[in-house]
Design a protein that fits this description.
By secondary structure, the protein is α+β, with helices and mostly antiparallel strands. 44% of the residues lie in helices and 22% in strands. The strands form two sheets. The chain has a four-stranded antiparallel sheet with strand order 5-4-7-6. Strands 1-2-3 form a three-stranded mixed sheet. Helix 4 runs antiparallel to helix 5. It starts with a helix and ends with a helix.
Length: 243
Amino acid sequence: MGFSKTFLTRKGFEMKERLFIQKAKEQVRLEEFVRKQFAQAKCGDIEVQHTPLVTRIVLHTTTPGLIIGSGGERIKETVEILKKEYGIENPQIDVQRIDNPDLDSNIVAQTIATSMESGVNFKKLGNYYMQRIMESGAIGCEIVLSGKISGQRGRRERFIAGYLKKCGEPAKRDVAVGFAVANPKLGNIGVTVKIMLKRSELSIKIPEHTAPEEVKEKVKSKPKEKVKEEPTETQEIVSENTE
């Protein structure tokens, strides 16, 4: 009985794991299809919300008109494809405008990739968009270009500014990551953009030599506590002789 119970629980766990993997694959395929369908429009984050009645796809973009089309023709065409090829019964597409495209990592990555395909120098692109991201209010950013950037050999160029978390829960929560592929004549170039929008709450101890002047003045003005010194052996012997 013990063997059969462990076998059944393990089998049930494997079935659940397969379902999760299958759903994740379907979601990735759906996002890739939507990006290809609206390749002319610059799409940022794509959210897929599954409900019992409808499947809502939320598109964040800088050009809603290119996605909607005249009279909503492109939306209707995409909905029909989702019903036939992906088996979604009642899909709904919600288009949201991005207020500040310089803080959307996917939009910045796509813009850099398009500019590299047209022959713009990669150093100018990296420094220019790094400056724009920081001026828009980001705490930190990183732009990584990898591939045949300026020759037959593949290499990696990195542009970084500000404060950026690399690992841990703050990196997953506060850092937005975008990726795009440029297709110039020499070969494909991967463009990765990371933007940190808010600083995590961390208790950082400021050393005295790097602290602001106000903190230094408070440290200096704070009275030091006097420590009572215990008499040593030599002091005890001297006091006994004097007596």
